Structures are given as structure tokens and as C-alpha cells.
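Lab notes, practical 5.
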Amino acid sequence: MNEIQKILIIEDIPEVSFWLHAQVSALLPERPIDHADTLAMANKAASLQTYDLVLVDLGLPDGNGSSFIKAYKTTQPNALCVVTTIFDDAEHLIEALRAGADGYLLKDDTESDFINQLAGILDGRPPLSASIARFLLEQFHPNKEEQIVLTQRETDMLTLAAKGLSVKHAAELLGISYNTAAGYLKEVYRKLQVNTRAEATIKAINLGLINAK
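Output from the prediction step:
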């Protein structure tokens, strides 16, 4: 933590900004902390100062905090950029990590959890909030009631598609119309939340919905 000399908090809600200031001050006393409540202010501050630690909110009035992270990390790759947000979904998480975020913490975690996770990031430990880590694990180990269920016709259609058969050929083998076969495949895509045959095949095999052979 001794390497952290100057800190920037990017947060548009004053009460939350004050709370983050208190958490950081508890971990890193006597370090100067600047504040910005918009992307424009953050970019201006970053053009005038070099920050070793930046806490970045994602939902700012003039844009997404991930854009700041991406730009800042190109010029200051050794700086720590930690997302502090209310968004606990995969889309925001992946976007932030791809932008170069060094950590992802939820502002609605308990104060003790938040400060412990932030301390861990500063010490080089895993950079995710505990609740975010649980969320990611659930994506790979879905609960039984959340498991995807395909009908027999949907399974047949996906199996044939996975073998490389066209929708027309699969429809002929199954003795159904082209439109009906296409409808089954579309429903499979919807249930698996994918957009292509390749994605559907890989996900279905991983979930044990079809045989890999």
C-alpha cells in the first residue's frame, strides 16, 4: 500500500463519494484524495495529476466509467483502477474488466466487506467483491431449478444442427416443415441465450444437453 500516493474518486453522488473517501482514508491515511463527479471532471483531473489509485463509478451523468479506465490505463498502466458500483450483472463486469479494471466492488456490500476487499486489491489479492465472485460461480454451476430444459424435438433439432446439417436437411430427417424446424432452433437459441449454431453446440455439450459424439 505504500506505493499509493495520490487517489482519485469518481462518483456523482456526494454522500457515496464521502463514504468512499472515509473507507480509503482508513486504509491509506494522509494520502491526498481528489474527487470528480463526471467523466469530464475526471479526465481533466487526470490530465493535471497522476493518480496511483482511482475508484470509478460506472453510471456517471456523462457516460460510463469504463471509458475512463480504458483511456487512463493506456497512459498509466501501473495505476490501480477499481470499479465501485451498484451493477452486479455480467455485462457491466465484463465490460469493466476488458477496459482494464483492477478490481470490481459493490457499493451495497457491508462496510467491513467493502474495506476488506479493497485492502485485498491493494495487497494483490483477488480483485472481486465476494458477491460478484459468487455470481460468477453460479454462472458455471447453475441451481437445479435454473437448469435449461429442452423438449425432445428441440434436442433432436440441435443434435442435427450440431452435426452440421442445414435446417432444411434436418427438417427432412425429422419429417417436419422447414418453418417448424427453424422455430425449434430459434427456441433453442433463446433458451441457451446464444446467437449462433457454434455457441449453441458448445453450451449444450457443456451442459450435457446433447452428446458430443
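Observations recorded by the TA: The radius of gyration is 23 Å. DSSP finds ten helices and seven strands in the chain.
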